[in-house]
Structure formats: structure tokens, C-alpha cells
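Review form for a predicted model. The reviewer records the input and the model, then writes brief findings.
Reviewer: anonymous (R2)
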Amino acid sequence: MSDSRVQGAASGRGSGGRRRAWSELLAGRVRRQERSPGRGQELQESAVLLLRSHLDWSHLLLEVEGPPHKKLCLGSWIDHDVPEACTHLSSSLIGSALRDHASLLGVPVAVLSSQMVASSIVRICEAEAEHAHRALLDSVQRKKLSSLIEIAQYLLAHSMFSRLSFCQELWKVQNSLLLEALWHLHVQNIVSLQELLESHADLQATVAWLFRNLRLLCEQIEASCQHTDIARAMLSDFVQMFVSNGFQKNSDLRRNVQPGQMPQVAVAVLERMLILALEALGAGLQEESPTHKAVSCWFSVFSIHTFCRTISTDSLKKFFSHTLTQILTYKPVLRVSDAVQMQREWSFARTHPLLTSVYRRLFVIVSPEELISHLQEVLETHEVNWQHVLSCVSTLVICLPEAQQLVNDWVARLLARAFESCDLDSMVTAFLVVRQAALEGPSVFLSYADWFQASFGSAKGYHGCSKKALVFLFKFLSDLVPFEAPRYMQVHILHPPLVPSKYRSLLTDYITLAKTRLADLKVSIENLGLYEDLSSARDVTESQPHSQAPQDVEKALLVFEHTGKIPVAVLEASIFRRPYYLSHFLPALLTPRVLPRVPDTRVAFIESLKRADKIPPSLYSTYRQACSAAEREKPEDAAPGMKVEPGHVEEPLELLTIALGELRAAMTDPVQYDVLSAQIAVISERVGSVLGLSEDRGSFEASKIQLSVLAPELEQQEQKVVDLLLTSFCQNLMAASSFAPPDRQGPWASRFVMTMCERTLLPAVLTRLCQLLHRQGPSLSASHVLGLAALAVHLGESRSALPEVHMGPPAPARGLSIPEFFNSLLTCGTAESSLLCLKFCTAAISYSLCKFSSQSRDVLYSCLSPGLIKKFQFMVFRLFSEARDPLSQEDTAGHPSKPWCLPSADWQQVALYLWKQRTFQELLKEEQFHLTYRNWLQLELEIQPEVDSLSDTERRDFHQWAIHEHFLPKPAAAGGCDGDLETACTVLVDVLMDFCQSSRSYDHSESSDLVLGGCTGNRDIFSRLQEMAVDLEQGPVAPYGHSSSRGHFLFGVFRRRLRALASGWDVATHLRRQRELLMCKRILLSLPPSVLVGSPQGEQPATPDCDEFFHLVNSELRNFCSHGGALTHDITVHFFRGLLNACSRSRDPSLTANLTLTTCQTECPIILTSALLWWPRLEPELHCRWKKCLQGPLPRELQRLREAQQFARSFLSPNTASPAPDPVWVSAAALHFAIQQVGKESVERELEKLDCQQEELLVFLFFFSLIGLLSSHLTPHAVNSLKALDICGKILGFLEKRKISWLVLFQLRETDASLGHILLRLAPDQYIRLLPFAFYSLLSYFDKDALLREDAFLHVAVDMYLKLICLFVDGDTSAVSIPASGIQELQGQGDPVGLLTKARLFLLQSIPQCPKKSFSNIAELLATGGDCDPEVITALLSRQQAMSDTDLYQEPHLF
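Model under review:
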């Protein structure tokens, strides 16, 4: 068809001649071209001339955008990505044309191109009709500008562009420019913003243009969502440029700019933007107004992230400090009197959030000390805006923990200066700052009452230096009276400054003035409540003592219940505020009632006041008569302790029921906020009427709520009211949810819950929740669970306004927030409690996700405890195997309200649906909600296997999956173990020991199952530890030297935990450490014995690694898990089993055993003595194991133990005793244990054989007998103390008979190569400390004459005596005292006082008989011993001086 049109056109043109065919025409054209070979060049030149004469350069630059993909029809261009090449071709053509045009015009091509590009930018910016009110480009403009910038970059690269000329051209049309266009020029390196701004000659015009465009930019950032990233990047770049130029010490000034011009521009623009924001805040901002958005946007630049490390810290500090100064000095129109009157309106909570947010951002980079210093400097050198200064102080003490002390110090300096020179400005500043900080509550700063009393209530106060200071103080306080709030005057009256009696008139004049002012304000100082907060910021009107007195009574009863003493506030009121005490407090306390059979707290408190003469007899008699009358007239069903007002109470209860029913009827439309709010207000008033609450009950002043989980009790009337409220809330929630999802129900639920948060009602509500969830949880219906879960969410929403909850065991001892309180009530130990936990967690999380879906995550985080979300994960993993697989993308779809709307009976479906939700899975990405391996272990340990919902097989499969498939490969940052099995074992041991030490592990029911020493829990977790320990042992062998340097992980856990415990000899510390060590020992015994004795290394000699175990034995087990010189049987057998296992893996088993036991002789000798004690039970197993596994005779060192045992048996036999085998101390230990096991008569007969034994054996045996003597006193069911004492005396007799020195045993040192090094490791430290007791217990066996000949006797005797006194003073001798029912012969022996008296008498008799050489080291000993016994010390010094004097009078031997 196209061909026919062409042909027609051709024929039409030649109508006068012969019609020619198309082929002929083409042939003729070809022939003409062939005849004119230069014709093509001529046509090209003609075309260029035609373009030059008709070219519009501005439009040409705008039209060159590069060919769109859809217009590129050449396949080769598309295949080879030619758009860039095409753009380059366009730029080169334009460059060539510009060069030709510039040569024709006779101007530089750089100037011409700059003019053309500037003109094109103006056309782009003016393309939008409303460009004058915008700072951002639209997408079309941005695309055109991008193409233009590419051309400009080409021109720059080829030196065809003048930046200076370009800047001048732009400023000519500055009103047509959009800020984003200039920013793109800066980003693409066409011309920088700094260069562009510096090129403008008019500084004021530059500032005005920048200010106008930045304001437009801030407004557009919040209004536009499409280009927010670009706009924020623009704002960040401009601010960075302003700060870098305006707040540096040496600005980088351009040569064509006057010095200081660029810094001035930068500072001026920043100041004008800040003033704009402050003016908007002062005028009042609507939340969603454009101005509010613009101010919020500008304040967001005061963030450390804005500068991204491009600005130095010094510059940032200068900028932030300058900004803070501008805020504090903005429009200083308020006077000090205005600040005194209005400052309570400037607290942190009442200050505009935008202003507090900019304060917080300014505080980030400046230290608290610098902030205080800057505040002080501004106050001293500028007129200030007091509203901004005081709101800054509030933000400072709220946001910075260090601020309390710093502000205290600052105020102290101000007061010191004020009283030093009567400086009124410093005085005003100090009082305003303190009052402002006190407004934020006692959690962040002292109350004003406490500060005033501390500053002026003592003789050391600032005012006490002179009369001039006193006059200055009271003149200042008097000047404040017309302006300040009544609370402050009440503080000054009730806690007046301490004034000398001669200046008392100054104080009385002020009190008269303040009371007059209070009377004008209708505030009575006499009727102030006992526990009223004098530093509160709220308005004070005429006090109502009839409503305040019951609250004072309740608080006084609470204090009395905890302390058992009459509260100080009550005692003070009975003396200093007697009218209120007699007229209001006592009548409220002595309300007639039916007295309980068992006296309660109120009865005990009243009786305490009566005994202290704080209740008039007539008033008390009237109270008792009224109570007796109430007893006679009480209804049959009245409970003891109830107030007798049946007719008065029943009516308000019925009215409350009616009001709750009306609220239920209004729930058909839960969005009608006004109707529901009015009805909830009625309910709040009815609740107050029923419970007798005061009108002023909105704020919760108590710091904590004390509850008992095990026995939560409520009064009958309180329980009725709370049940009505809880039932109504659950019913209303279900009704409202049938009409609208939670996120479209309005705030009725929050308002209703706040009604239950009144300070007298909230403890009752929480107590009832304890009863329902902790005791009756399995019997709750689905609607109850849903309602209580939603109630928990809304209580968590108000957590910041509610006190902490303190609960008795087994809950944590620390205070709990409301979400944590609900988490503590939900347990997972049984199948029933697990199901309740799953239901409650599912309902609470689903409700939260739906209710707060449109709000910030912070609101959601405040409502839910991380523990509750972790329990939900735990229960889902545990109960639903399908949840253990990774979720697919399709699984995570869904709306958060759907689980809330599903049939509540099918909890499994609801829980799984919630688990698969994308919103919930995103929530789990937050670190605080990660279910870590430690969390999982803590929860799994609470499971009781006998009542678990999983069978034994299912539970084992779940443990295998959780440990080996889920937590073991999981990264540590996500709560896993990074694939490290040793880490998994370490955490398991740590959690297991924590659990067994905690109150959660002790079941308070009668069917308590004892596992691991009294703790109940999932025993299978311990089995998993055993399996993992075996897996770890069978893993890859570490290179030689590697594992030995680290030791077994188990000992690392023990060492860390034991170091964390306090050290000392008091009973509590001792018991805590003993309990920890018993757990360590039980874990060791449950794991393979190879833990104690590691496998021998490959090199020879083949010694196993026992260092960690030896250290544990020497440092801990020796003191807490031993029987006077020997470890218990279980740990001893376990060690030798480990030793045999190590020998079986060694190349030379006998050598390994010999080397290990030889090491024991010096490093851990108690192992060998333990083996000797338990040898009858130990030997058969050792012999059998060695024979089965290793063949051959026992190793030499084991045979030595057998020989020592045989020696001990032969010694006690009628036959002649053989010599003791080496080592001698081992033979002595064997003999000691053998002696303890025979009767007293046999011992006395056989001990005669000691006379022919070697000296060393006797010394070691005497030491073991001393330990046995102490053990007979310290260890239950030990050897008879009298027998142990006789044995010691017999052995001592042989030592003295053979003149063998034994005093060295009482002077043992660790540095001694032989005795001290070994013997000190054989006995517990407590026994070593008690050696003075053993020493003086043997007084009757001492050969005094022989001892006096010993040079060391006096030193040892005095040393033992001084240490015995220290033991007595410290109370340690009570452990070895004989009870009153003990053996008659031991009564004097075991009495510490009697023993101390005998020792003292012995010393006083012995000192005069001691030779001179005995006093050689006495002075040094007395210097370290102190003044324990002045008489003994005097006797020693006198004897020493007498002998010195004798030496002086002796005739010298000269030859």
C-alpha cells in the first residue's frame, strides 16, 4: 500500500510527461550521482549551514537525552550496550557545534557553553508551574537535568566550560532556580555548592535565598514520600557544608571571596533556620501541620549520623554548643518571677517533644561536664529564656545518668558563691535548677524537700556562717512567697532552716508570712497527710484530711508489717502534728470492726501504739467497746476482720454492677469514644465508692507492690470488685471484637485498664491475677484467657507509670515490671501449664500485633515482655514439629488480626498461624526477642518429665533437634553456639548449676522429686550433657600442647563460678560455696572419669593431664568435700577409674600410672590418703580392671599403696610390726586410718609399738592424729573426741620420750620443701586454722620441762595463743565446742572459754621459766599479734627486759 502511494506521488509530479516506472527513477538518480562525485560533500556543507542559521541552542541541549531503548532499532547497538556510546556521540556533536558557534560569535567557547547550560537549567526548573514554591524537581525534570549534566561533564572534560561564568549566569536568575538542581550540579562535580555560594557578591541575598529554599526543602521532605531519599541527602549535604565552613578555626577561603564571608553565610543560614523552628514551637504546633513537619525535619539534622564522620569532633562540638546557646537565649522575655510561677509546666513530660528531641541530640557529642559548664556560662553572660533553660535542665537529668551528681555539684557551687557575696543571681539560678530537677521525680533527682533539708537543715548549711547570710536567705525566701507554689512553702515550714536561737525571729517572721499566703490559697498546713509528697508538682487545694487519713493508715500498716516498728512519720505526727493525728489519723485507724481470731497487722499496730502511749485511753476504750458490739451484731456469714457496714457497701456494689452492664451494652459500637469514656468515668467513681478510695487516687506514689505468689490472698470485698472488673473487661473485649478488630476499637480498653491501675486497686488486681494464672490457669475458659492476655498488654502499655512488683519465691527477688510479672506467672513445667502458657502467649502476641500494627515498634516492645515471646517460641518448637522446619515465603503471609479472629478453641491452629506470620517473624529478628540456647535450656529444665505433654521418645527427639540441629549450628550473635560443641556443653553446665541453685528448682509440692541434690527439673537435659561430653571426648584430638593449655571446659566453668562467689569464713559464705562445690562434684561424677584424668600425650614420658583436677582438689574440694585428710569415696573412685582409662590408652600403662601417682605425692597428696582410706573398697575394682584390660601386675605406685595398707594392718596385729615402707607419710596416713577403725583398748595396747618406729613416721602420724582430733569435733558421726585426744596424747608422749621435735607441725609453711608442702595439702584450711585449738587441747599431755628446753617452744606457744584468741573473737571456736549434752569428760575440753583460760594460765606460768634464747623472735611476733592480751604481752616484755638487765650487770669477759 505504501508502494502504491509512492508511485502515485511520482506519477503526479510528472503529469506533463511520460509516466516512468519507479525502477527507472532510481536508475536515473544513480546515474546522476555517478556523474557528480563531489555532490555529497556539498550537500553536507549545505545542511550544516542551514542548521547554524536556524539553531536554538537552549532547545538543542534539552532535546539531547540519549536514544531511549525502544527507539533503538539497530540490533548491533542494542547487543553492544550502545546507549552510552550514543550519548557520547550526542555530546561530541553538541561540543563541535558550540565550538563553531563560538568562533562565529567571537566569544570563548567556555563562556558560551556556560551560558547555554545555565539557560537550559533555568528552562528545566521553570517547566513546573509552581516552581517558586518548591525545592525539588519532578521525575521529568530530574531526567532532563541528568542528560544536561552529562553534556556539561563532557564540556568540562574538554575544557569547554567556565565554572565562574556558569555561577554568575545562575545567580542572575536565582529566583528561577530549584535547590535540587544546584545540588545535582554539586554531586556530579559540575560546580560545588561552596564555590557556587561564594561566587555571589551579595551576602544578605545569598542568606535569604538559602533560607527560603531550605525551608521549602524541609516542608517537601515530610510532604513527599516519592523522593524522600534525595531530599534528605540534599539537606545533609547542605548542613555538612554549613557546619564545615561556619565552625572551623581556619576556614578555607577562596581567593575571590572576602575573608569571613562564607563562614558568615553558613552561620547566618543555620541561625535563621533555628529561629524559624523556635518561633513555630513558641506559636504552638499542630501535630500534622506542614510547619510541624518542617520543624521536625530540621531538628533531625542535629544527629551524629547526619555528618557521617565528615566533620571533625571539634567542629561538631562548636556547632552543637552554638545551637544550644541560641536556644537558651532565644527571646529572653520571661522574668524570674514568671519562671518561679510557671516552671512546673516546663517539665520533661510537658515540654514539646520536638524541643526535647533536639536537646537529646545536642547532648550526644558534648560530655555532661561540658554541658553543665556551658549552661553556667550562658546564664552568667546572656539574658536567657527561662523556659528553654529549665526544660533543658529537665532533659539533662532525665537523659543522662551522671547529671544528678553534676547538677548537685553545680548547685552547691552556686549556693557557695551566693552566700559568699550575697549574689542574688546565683541564688535564683540554684533554686530554679533544683526545683526543676526535682520535678522529674526521685528516680532521677532528690526531692525538693530532701535537698532543702540537706542544704539548710543543719549547722553545716550554707546559711550558718553569719547573720548576713541568714538575712540574705530569709529575704530571698520571703521574696519568693508571692510567686511560688504552695508545696514549696510547705517544705520550708515543715523542714525549716536551722537557725541559732538569737536569730529565731527571722524564721518566725518567714513562717508567719508563708502561712498567711497558704491561707490565702486555702491550703492548710495542719491537715497535710503523713506520707504526702511535698515535692510534687501538682496543684494543691484545700486538703481533705478525711480522705487522706485512710491512705496514711494503709501506708503506715504496710511499713509496720515490713519493719515491725512504729513508722517514724507516725511518731513525728503524734508529737508535732497532734491535731491531725488525734482528729483524723487515729479515728481512721480505730474504725470499729469484727476483730479476727488471730491478730492481724492492724491489731498488732494498734497494740504497739497503745504500749507507746500514742493512743489516749478513752479513745482506745471506746474502740474496744465498739468492736465488741460489732462482734455481737455481726451477720452469720461475716468474715472476721471485716468492717461492719453491710448496708453501706452492698448498695455501691450493685451500682457498680449496673454501670458495668451499661458499658457492655455500649460495646455494640466500640469506636464511639465519647460514650465509652463517659461510662468508664462512671465505673471509676463507683469503684471508689465501693472500696472507699479517696478522690485523689490517680497517681501511684508507691515505689513497689509486694505480692506473694505462693499464698496470694484478698479481702472478700476486694475480690468481688476485682472479679466484676475482670469479667466485664473480658466480656467487653469479646463483644467489641465481634464488631471490629482490635486496631479499630478505639482506646476504650486502655481507659478501662487505667481504671484498675489506681494505687489502692492495682495490688488487688495483680493479686487476683496471681490466683487465676498461677492456681486456676488450666480451668480458665478461652474468653478468659483472651481477655486476661489483652489486659496484660494494656497494663504493659502503662508500665512507665506503674510501680515494680516484688514477689516472693519462687519468683525472682528483684522488682519486676508489669510485663515481666505476667511472664513470671506463666510456667511450662506440666502439660496443663504448658497449654495455658501457649494460649496466653498466643493471645497476647496476636492482640499486640493487631492492636498496635500502625504504631511504632517501641509501643509494641513496651507491652510485651521478651520472656513471654521467648516462651511462645519455646512452646511452638516443643509442641509442633512442623514449626522446626524453615518457613517458606508463602508461609509468612497473613494479617496480624486473623489469629485473633480464629475460633479460640483451636489453639494449635491459632499458634501455628501466628508463628508463620511475616510480622511476627520480623519481630523475632530483634535481638531482645531471640530465643537463645541459654533461654531454651532454662525453660526446658523446668519441664517435669512425669507430667510432660511429650513422651520420653518425643522429648529425646526434641532435645536432639534443638541442640544439634538448631542451636549448635546457629551463629552466636543469634543465640547459638557457632557450631562449637564445647561452647554448647559449657552453657549447659552453667545453666544447669544456676537452675539447681535457684528457687525455681525446688518444688514446693509434697511430691517433690529430688534430682541433683534437691532440685526438680528435666532430668533428660542432664543426659544430654553426658552424651555431648562423650561426643566431645571422641572428637578430633588437638595437637600436642593445645588442649593442655586450655584444660577441660568443665573446670573452666567451675573456676569462673567459684571466683564469682565471695570468700570468707562466715557461715553464709561457707554454705554458699559448699553448695556450689557439691554441684560441681555431682556433675564431675556424672561425666566420664576421663574428665578428671585426660588422655596421655603422644610424647614420653606419658603423663595424663590432671592439672585442672589437682587444682580443684587443692583449692576447693580439700576444704569442702573431704573427711579430715581424705576426699569422699565417690570422687576418689572416679579419679582412679579415670587413671586406669588413661593407662589403657597409653603406650606404657604402668609408666603412666607410676608417673601420675608420683606427681600426686607432691602436687595433690590428698588423692593418695583418700585411696588409703577407701582402699578396702577400692582395691578389688582396681585389681579387676587392671587384670582385665592391661594384664600384668599392678604398677609399682599402686603396690606402694597396698604395702602401706598391709603395714598398717600388721602394726595393729599381735605380730611384730615391720618397718614402714616409703614414702613414710603415706604409711603414717594408712596407720592413722587403721587406728581410727579399732577400739580404744586395742589402740592403747598397739600404740606401744610406735616406740621402735622411725622418727619421721611418728611426726607424720602425730599430724594426722591432730587432724583426727579436730575432725572428731567438726564432723558428725566421727571418731569419739576422747579417743582422738588419747591417741594424740599417746603419740605426743612417744615423741617427747624420744626427744623428737614436733613443734614444727604448728609452724608449717607452703614454702617448706618437705613437711609444709605436703601436709598443708592434706588437711582442709579450716583444720589448719584450728590447730591452736588442738595445741592447747593437749596441755595435760605436755612435758613442760622438756618443752622449756626447746628453743622454739615459747614462740610457738605464744603464736598459738594469739591465734586462739583471734579464733575466739571471730567465733570460729564455736564449731569445735562440745554441746551441753556431750560426754562429761569433754565438757572442760571443748569449752572455748575454759580452754582459753587454761592456755593463758599455762603461758603466764611458763614465761618466767623460759631461757633467754626463747625470746629471740618474740618482739616480731607481738608486733603482728596486736594487743590481744595485755597481761600476757606485759609478762613477755617484762621477762625479756629483766634478762637484758641481767646481762648488763654481768662482768664482761675481756680475756
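Findings: The CA atoms of residues 299 and 496 lie 45 Å apart.
Further findings: The longest helix spans residues 716-739.
Recommendation: see findings above.
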